[in-house]
Design a protein that fits this description.
- 2 copies of one chain form a homodimer.
- The first copy, chain A, is α+β, with helices and mostly antiparallel strands.
- Helices cover about 45% and strands about 20% of the residues of chain A.
- Chain A has a domain of about 40 residues.
- In chain A, the strands form 4 sheets. A 3-stranded antiparallel β-sheet of chain A has the order 6-7-8, with no helix packed on it. The first copy, chain A, has a two-stranded antiparallel sheet with strand order 1-2.
- The two termini of chain A are about 35 Å apart.
- The N terminus of chain A is likely disordered.
- The structure holds a DNA duplex.
Chain lengths: ~210, ~210
DNA sequence: TGATAAATGTTTCGACTCGAAACTATTTTA
DNA sequence: TAAAATAGTTTCGAGTCGAAACATTTATCA
């Protein structure tokens, strides 16, 4: 995988001080890692620009975006925490800023008073529609054919699923494709909550997703 | 692209206060964006864990990794700045920390005294070999067949190239596939610098890459 | 040639992010 | 009914970030 080589070079002003460095060349394994990191860097950069009008940080926009895509079982602070891979305190603060900007509102759960649902407001949706995904990224995607885009998505989904499983993280996924999603005589039902699901519901992301 | 729908729900304790929200469902365009963001989140999280032993932040590890993969024309602070999409001051500080941890050393350029080359030390290489790419990510990749992995890389490269072009950013790329890379009777030469390139050189990433 | 502009990099500042830990309130467990 | 678990907030200190001012060196060009 790695090739090792020892090289020499001079250090700054102090003449003839030599440092021995070990140098390795990346195997093909690194390449995919590298590509994802670089795409993520560019995305973060563009996201930062898009958020400047409202003074929103990238991480806050990510949280807002997540909340716009998740279902009613997954719109809590803890779910956002899982999704972003951060700690409770950090996420709590980010959400406070989204709330102060009137992009989300907090709605207490009626059954369990500990739980607060986070609902994206009209202003929040409008902001997302303008900015998310960033325009230049969307443009870059169009260079792929429909088949190529589908293929990319399929393969990345495979990697993501495995990665989520390896890290023991909640496997967020689309309700429709979840093993708890059941078609009954009364319509579509969630096997976990036993609640009825609408055609819109099943298109959203759920934190309880399982295959 | 988007489907709009107006929904109603009750707000917290104040009974019967209704909020009108506009809700939209993501078209397929969002999906690729979403996948990359989520993979990046997981990578950042695992990177954070891996760096704890040395007290290294994710962004510092990314800089170190970049420096281990780039050539002698691209191992400067400004190149790292371009690569990470951050500002000079920020990167300068991150590099100072890498230097204080003896993971890189600074080497003044002999021709242009403004330029400082950043060389990864043996300790730096060893740290990277242990931690980069993160183990669980590497494991997740193995779920792909060789062909699938190749296909994914090819497609993501296409997206990245377009994205870099759209943002007007430096298009980092492997020397070997650059248009300035020339095969002459004396060996391989860089058309920009007119310098000879070794077989090792041409495998590294260059900030002057062009197609 | 000599003044001005441009490029490389550092430092400082204030706003923001992050994890850790302590804390409240509610629900579940035993 | 007491103890444990869950959802969420607040506070603290370390670190990240961009912006701007700065120093040094090199390039431009009149």
């Amino acid at each position: 995988m790695f090739r090792l080589e020892t090289i020499l070079f001079e250090h700054s002003k102090s003449s003839l001080v030599k440092y021995v460095l070990t140098r390795y060349y990346c195997g093909m394994n690194d390449e995919l890692f590298n590509l994802i990191e670089r795409l993520a860097n560019l995305l973060r950069q563009e996201t930062r620009l898009e958020g400047q009008s409202l003074g929103l940080q990238p991480v806050q926009q990510e949280a807002l975006y997540y909340l716009s895509t998740c279902n009613r079982y997954s719109d809590t602070m803890l779910a956002v925490t899982e999704f972003l891979g951060l700690t409770k305190g950090t996420v709590s603060q980010s959400l406070k800023i989204l709330e102060s900007n009137a992009l989300i509102i907090k709605v207490k759960d009626k059954k369990d008073k500990r739980i607060t649902h986070l609902k994206v407001t009209k202003a929040g949706r409008e902001f997302l529609m303008k900015t998310c995904p960033p325009q230049k990224f969307t443009d870059a995607i169009t260079s792929l054919s429909v088949d190529e885009e589908f293929e990319t998505k399929t393969l990345l989904k495979k990697v993501l699923n495995n990665y989520q499983q390896a890290t023991g993280r909640t496997a967020f996924g689309v309700c429709q494709h979840c093993k708890f999603n059941q078609q009954t005589s009364d319509g579509i039902v969630c096997g976990l909550t036993k609640e009825a699901l609408s055609n819109d519901d099943i298109m959203l992301i759920c934190k309880e997703y399982a295959v």
